[in-house]
Amino acid sequence: MERDGVIYTETIVHAPPEQYAADAPYQLAIVELNGGGRVTARVLGKTVEERARIGERVRFVEERAGVAYYRKDG
Amino acid sequence: MRPVAVLGIGKTAFGALADRDLRSLAVEAVESALRDASVSPKQVEAFYLGNFAGPSFAGQNHLAPYVGMAAGFEGIPCTRFEDACASSGSAFFHAWQSVAAGVYDLVVAAGVEKMTSQSTPRVAEILAGAGDMAGEGKAGATFPALFAMIARRHMHQYGTTREQLAAVAVKNHANGVKNPLAHMRKVITLEQALAGKPIAEPLTVYDCSLISDGAAAVVIVPLEQAARYNSRYAKVLAVVQTSDHVALDEKADITYFPAVKAGGAKAFALAGLGPNEIDVAELHDCFTIAEIVASEDLGFAAKGEGGPLAASGATAIGGRIPINTSGGLKSKGHPVGATGVAQICDVVMQLRGDAGERQVAKHKIGLTQNLGGSGATCVVTILEAA
């Protein structure tokens, strides 16, 4: 799928901006898209196992309010 | 273009200054720089004020004449410059242009930010506005998060370690203790830095610069006129402003800052010098990783060797290339709009031999590097003692 991709870089945000206070901690990543280009997106999940590292594949889940959400593959 | 000199410098203390407003800080810095230069406000021909977010932090727009009139300027052009954390670097660049081009003979460049009247989450939100709010900002990127992603990629590509990031914080705090105007004058250990509260992994609270109030100002004149005023001026050998993408995800390789690399190369060419000839440098350590990356981009270390350079002690006072002897943004503080001009003040103090306990032994040539956002604006200056 074009919107799936590979993690280029990532972080876990513990100190969010005011509007995302309820989401923290959350994983933010730059995803290298299969279809070309990169996007700054969220990776869903709260556990260590769900966390996606650099070079790992992620699957596009949905777009909410203009933000792409991904989940680690497999 | 005429050669230019920094004639006078002035800084307020940096810190959480609850009883001070934006204007009083800026006026204090300007008055201090004018006193240092032995000139009166009526001699000033133009005023260039750097400020990132006065409208958001303090609800005040139209800042340059607001400050300028209170400082005693008389009807001169007063303009605010906004280039995120490089706002006053940009103000300095434009002030330098006007004097170098022969438009004016005596101008003031300054910077100010009043940040601590807002909550930390609100500050994070305002600062995030220096990024791409339609993309990374909407996804939840704070500035610590953007620099955390730079750090992760740098660690992945070059083997940079958590300990090397922490070494930057430990060194800058050790320097800041020696700076009476620094915000957080506190020694920290490597163990403390490593065990800090996570902000955006792998960065902890000790990898992040401080949220501060403060202001800084300089008076600049043509070099040929500087000696009329005093013998403590510094020659401006180069000042270069460069730019790059605002969004981190639009950069091909986030482990270096193209604007810093290009700005540094051009500044060295203009000055006819190389990185080995710099005696002291103030680099933009908004986060520990930023100092490491900038030290590589400017040629103080080979690509990927900025971490080992920091951990080796070479960047400490007394090392091969002392970086951030003021304490840097990490310990001195980071009132964002004031930082670029404050770096110039700190380097001029070193060139004059006025840096007290943090004075470096050899102090002929100094460099400053001021970064806006995650690298979309950069201002590099190279200064020489009179």
Sequence stretches where pLDDT stays below 50 over 5 or more residues of chain A: none
What is the rounded distance between the termini of chain A?
15 Å
CATH architectural grouping of the largest domain in chain B: 3-Layer(aba) Sandwich
Radius of gyration of chain A (CA) equals 12 Å
- Counting DSSP E segments of at least 2 residues, the number of strands of chain B comes to 11
Please summarize the sheet with the most strands of chain B: 9 strands, mixed
Beta-strand content of chain A? over 45%
Average pLDDT metric of chain B: 97
Rounded to an integer in angstroms, the radius of gyration calculated over CA atoms of chain B is 19 Å
CATH class of the largest domain in chain B: Alpha Beta
Gross geometry of chain B: globular
Strand content of chain B: 15-25%
Subunit organisation of the chains: heterodimer
**Largest interface (CB < 8 Å):** A-B, 30 and 35 residues
User: Strand order within the widest sheet of chain B?
Assistant: 3-2-4-7-1-8-11-10-9
Q: pLDDT average of chain A, as an integer?
A: 95
Order of helices and strands of chain A: EEEEE
CATH level 1 class label of chain A: Mainly Beta
How much helix is in the residues of chain B? Answer: 25-40%
Instruction: Please tell me the total number of domains of chain A.
Output: 1
Helix and strand pattern of chain B: EHEHHEHEHHHHHEEEHEHEHHHHEE
Task: Outline the structure in words.
The complex is a heterodimer of chains A (74) and B (386). With 74 residues, chain A is mostly beta strands. Chain A has a single domain, classed as Beta Barrel (OB fold (Dihydrolipoamide Acetyltransferase, E2P)). In chain A, strands 1-2-3-5-4 form a 5-stranded mixed barrel. In chain A, strand 4 and strand 5 form a beta hairpin. With 386 residues, chain B is an alpha/beta fold. Chain B folds into 2 domains: 139 residues, Peroxisomal Thiolase, Chain A, domain 1 (3-Layer(aba) Sandwich), CATH 3.40.47.10; 234 residues, 3-Layer(aba) Sandwich (Peroxisomal Thiolase, Chain A, domain 1). Chain B contains 15 helices and 11 strands. A 9-stranded mixed sheet of chain B has the order 3-2-4-7-1-8-11-10-9, sandwiched between helices. The radius of gyration of chain B is 19 Å and the shape is globular. At the A-B interface, strand 1, strand 2 and strand 3 of A face helix 5, helix 6, helix 7 and strand 5 of B.
